[in-house]
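Weekly sync, protein design subgroup
Attendees: M.S., D.O., the rotation student, P.L. (late)

Item 1: inverse folding check
M.S. brought a backbone from last month's batch and wanted to see whether the design step gives back something sensible before we order anything. D.O. pointed out we never logged the input encoding, so this time it goes straight into the notes. C-alpha cells as presented (430 positions):
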C-alpha cells in the first residue's frame, strides 16, 4: 500500500493525501536537485484486476488511487473515472489505454544470432495513446488532477494551465490528454521543432511557447528553464521529469508491471531501456522490483554518443560512492557540454533528470549504462523495421541499439527485452 512520498535527496516526507505532490517541498527555483519517490508500507503488491486497461488493473498499486481513497473516494468511483477519461481519450486519439503486447521477435532474434532458447522479446508501445509510452506517465498525473477537482480540492480546470517542455512524443501525449480532459496546456518548444509536430499540437489546442537557446543562458535546456518559470508562476507541471512532477513515475510503472505479468516466470537476463530524462528507466526499475522477474533481470540504461549525461554521472557515482550519490547531484549530474545530436531525437535531454532513480535501478539489478554509437542507433532502427512489423522510430528502438552494442557480451541463449516506445511518423528524423 502506498503511504506517501519521500525525497531521495533530503528525505522530506509528503503524505499520500497531499494535493498536487509535484515536487519536494524543499525544492526551490535556485535548487531543483530534489526528487520525490513513492513510498509503500512494504507489504506485497496487490494482484492486478483482470482488466485490459492498466489504470484499472493496477490501480491499487498506484499513487493517484491511494490519494483518491485516502480522501474518501470509493473504489468503484475511481474505476468509473478511469473509464470516463479513457473514453474521452479514445475519442481524441482513436485508442485508449490497453495492455501492450510482449512477444519474441523471431526474425530479429535470428538476425542477431540468438538460439531458440534465448532471443529478443519486444514490448511494443507504438500503438498506445499518442503513439508512445509517454501518455502512460501523464495519465497518472491527470487522474490525480481529476480526483482533486472532483472532490473540490483544486480550482476548476479552466482556472489553471498545464505545462510541459517537449517537442516530440511527450508533447503530443500531453496535448492529447489535455484535449480529452478539456484542460488548457502550454507546450514549451525549441525554435527548430518539427513543423508537423507543431501543426498537430495546434490542432489539439495546445498553446505553444518557443524557447530559443541564447549564448548567455544558464546550462541546460532553455525549454526546461521557461517551463519551470511557468510552474513557479502557478502552472501545473504536466511533465515527464520526476523532479518537476513526481506523479509521472506513477503511471510509467504500469509498463513494468505488465512486463512482469506477461513473462509469467520466464527467465530474462537483461532489459535494455533507452534513457533521455530517465523517467522510463526509473519506472521500469521500480515496477520490476515490485512485480518481480525470475531471476532478476539486469537493467541497462541506453544513451547515445551524442548525448550521454547519465553514463558520465554513473562514473561519477562510483567515484563518490553510489550509497551517497544523492548528496553529490551538482557534481555528478551536469548538463551535456555540447548541443545534443542523434537520430534518436527523443532521448537528447541535456540532463538525465531522474538519474537517481536510474542509478537505483542499475545498482539493484546489477546492470550498467551503455553508450550506443550513432551507427548502432541507425542500424538498430533499420534492423527493427526489416525484421518486425512494428513501425518504430529511432528513439523508440534505441534500446535495441544498446543490445546491438553489447551483443558480444550477451549469451546466445539469453532472453533479452527491449522496449519499442515510439511510433515512426512522417516527420520522425531517421
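Designed sequence read out in the meeting:
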Amino acid at each position: 500500500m502506498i503511504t506517501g512520498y519521500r525525497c531521495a535527496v533530503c528525505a522530506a516526507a509528503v503524505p499520500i493525501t497531499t494535493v498536487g505532490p509535484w515536487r519536494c517541498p524543499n525544492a526551490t527555483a535556485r535548487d531543483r536537485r530534489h526528487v520525490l519517490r513513492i513510498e509503500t508500507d512494504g507489504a506485497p503488491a496487490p494482484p492486478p484486476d483482470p482488466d485490459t486497461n492498466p489504470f484499472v488493473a493496477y490501480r491499487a498499486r498506484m499513487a493517484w488511487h491511494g490519494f483518491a481513497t485516502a480522501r474518501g473516494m470509493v473504489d468503484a468511483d475511481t474505476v468509473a473515472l478511469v473509464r470516463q477519461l479513457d473514453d474521452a481519450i479514445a475519442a481524441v486519439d482513436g485508442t485508449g489505454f490497453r495492455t501492450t503486447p510482449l512477444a519474441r521477435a523471431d526474425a530479429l532474434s535470428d538476425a542477431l544470432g540468438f538460439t531458440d532458447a534465448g532471443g529478443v522479446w519486444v514490448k511494443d508501445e507504438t500503438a498506445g495513446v499518442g503513439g508512445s509510452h509517454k501518455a502512460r506517465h501523464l495519465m497518472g498525473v491527470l487522474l490525480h488532477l481529476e480526483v482533486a477537482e472532483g472532490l473540490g480540492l483544486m480550482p476548476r480546470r479552466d482556472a489553471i494551465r498545464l505545462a510541459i517542455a517537449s517537442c516530440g512524443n511527450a508533447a503530443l501525449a500531453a496535448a492529447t490528454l489535455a484535449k480529452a480532459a478539456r484542460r488548457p496546456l502550454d507546450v514549451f518548444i525549441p525554435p527548430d521543432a518539427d513543423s508537423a509536430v507543431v501543426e498537430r499540437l495546434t490542432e489539439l489546442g495546445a498553446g505553444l511557447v518557443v524557447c530559443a537557446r541564447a549564448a548567455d543562458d544558464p546550462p541546460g535546456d532553455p525549454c526546461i528553464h521557461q517551463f519551470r518559470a511557468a510552474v513557479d508562476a502557478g502552472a501545473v507541471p504536466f511533465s515527464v521529469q520526476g523532479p518537476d512532477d513526481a506523479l509521472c513515475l506513477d503511471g510509467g510503472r504500469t509498463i513494468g508491471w505488465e512486463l512482469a505479468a506477461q513473462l509469467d516466470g520466464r527467465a530474462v537476463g537483461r532489459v535494455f531501456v533507452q534513457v533521455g530524462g530517465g523517467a522510463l528507466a526509473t519506472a521500469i526499475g521500480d515496477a520490476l522490483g515490485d512485480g518481480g522477474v525470475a531471476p532478476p533481470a539486469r537493467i541497462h540504461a541506453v544513451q547515445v554518443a551524442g548525448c550521454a549525461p547519465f553514463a558520465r554521472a554513473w562514473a561519477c557515482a562510483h567515484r563518490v560512492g553510489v550509497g551517497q550519490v544523492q548528496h553529490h547531484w551538482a557534481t555528478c549530474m551536469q548538463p551535456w557540454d555540447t548541443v545534443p545530436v542523434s537520430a534518436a531525437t527523443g532521448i537528447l535531454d541535456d540532463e538525465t533528470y531522474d538519474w537517481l532513480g536510474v542509478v537505483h535501478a542499475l545498482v539493484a539489478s546489477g546492470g550498467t549504462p551503455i553508450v550506443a554509437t550513432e551507427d548502432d542507433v541507425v542500424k538498430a532502427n533499420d534492423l527493427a523495421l526489416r525484421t518486425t512489423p512494428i513501425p518504430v522510430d529511432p528513439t523508440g528502438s534505441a534500446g535495441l541499439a544498446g543490445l546491438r552494442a553489447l551483443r558480444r557480451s550477451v549469451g546466445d541463449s539469453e532472453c533479452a527485452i527491449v522496449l519499442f516506445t515510439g511510433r515512426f511518423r512522417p516527420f520522425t528524423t531517421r
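Discussion: The longest strand covers residues 298-304. The CA atoms of residues 197 and 355 lie 28 Å apart.
Action: P.L. to compare against the previous round before Friday.
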